Amino acid sequence: MPIQRFGSMLVSQGRFDEYLNLLRSSYRENNLTQLMCLNTLSIDWQGTVYDCDFNQMLSMPLGAMAKPRVHIADLILEVLSGAAIATAALYR
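Given the sequence above, the corresponding structure tokens read:
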């Protein structure tokens, strides 16, 4: 995902759309079961939990759509089982 500095660099070079096309053409559905975000959490220095490192970079904390930020001290792992991973399209 072209986010933060990488995305800005692509925009400044006029290559953002080219990179998105590369991502779309490289998509393979059978890779979805291996996504790191399915079994790895990201925690910032303040203890806020994110369901994916990309979401941490986008400031989209775990549960951002429905409730306040989740701190690692308040995390209940069983609640995460089968939960959807936040995406920008869902967050807006």
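Helices lie at 4-12, 16-26, 53-57, 77-80, 88-91. Try to locate this feature in the token string yourself.
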